[in-house]
Amino acid sequence: MTKAVAFTKMHGAGNDYIYVNTLLYSIPDPSEASRQWSRPHFGIGSDGLVLICRPTTADADYRMRIFNADGSEAMMCGNASRCIGKYLYEKGLTTKTSIRLETASGIKVLNLHLNTDDSRRVDSVTVDMLEPRLDVAEQYDGTRTDGTFVSMGNPHFVIFADEVPTTPVLTERGSALEQDKAFPQRCNIEFAVATAPNTFRTRVWERGSGITMACGTGACATAVAAITTGRADRSKPVEIVMDGGTLTIEWRSDNHIYMTGPAAFAFEGTVDLP
């Protein structure tokens, strides 16, 4: 007998995932579930599947697992982290406004900003994305000269351009660069255009998902790349404008990257396990 699972569809700046609380529902094959459920027209439609789990360490409150639309497991997603913060608080799974979330790239601290008129609602979330790394041998061999590599736990390659790429150009270049031999684990690709001081219009090709409306770690990587190449001022927040909305990135004195942005519920339902 097929088992039905309750899900919640959420998005952070248009980066949409299917969320399942595994404290209530077991997902035996999350890779296959992500592949089937993420399909537009034939499934729920999403950028992937996010599992909310019990932590494996006492240092965390909850754990997040992320599966891309192609079924591959991701290390981290900033937009999904913000959505989990909103999910946990608004569904009564925590009363904390500072949540420690275990991910495959470390424990991230989510700071919830509550609505001033209704403290039961979360307006936005700031995520401590930890320290960026610019030299990770297992993710990048250092051979490309047309962009800047930044690891936010997951690999990113940021290319600064004179104009925002069209969808056909982003698809062609993004898909090729994702698979480039310079990136042993494949790579997320960002194209960024400076539009004002400390403001960049960015489009992203995500490893395992393709074009998405926004990418939290990609926004962080773009800000880091802009600062390290002299295109942005580290002492001020950097605004990253993506297809689905704007994320605010700060590179603070503790050398951590802090990302602030929205999170929203879309709809809920039930779906059969594959």
Concise structural overview:
The chain has helices at 30-37, 78-90, 167-178, 216-228; strands spanning 4-12, 15-21, 48-53, 62-68, 73-74, 98-103, 106-114, 122-128, 148-151, 155-160, 188-196, 199-206, 210-212, 238-242, 245-251, 257-262, 264-272. The chain has 274 residues and is an alpha+beta fold.
Could you characterize the architecture of this molecule?
- This protein has 274 residues and is of the alpha+beta class.
- It has 2 domains: 4-130 and 261-272, Diaminopimelate Epimerase, Chain A, domain 1 (Roll), CATH 3.10.310.10; 148-255, Diaminopimelate Epimerase, Chain A, domain 1 (Roll).
- It has 4 helices and 17 strands.
- It has helices at residues 30-37, 78-90, 167-178, 216-228; strands at 4-12, 15-21, 48-53, 62-68, 73-74, 98-103, 106-114, 122-128, 148-151, 155-160, 188-196, 199-206, 210-212, 238-242, 245-251, 257-262, 264-272.
- It has a 17-stranded mixed beta sheet that branches.
- A hairpin with a 2-residue loop joins β11 and β12.
- It is globular.
- The mean pLDDT is 97.
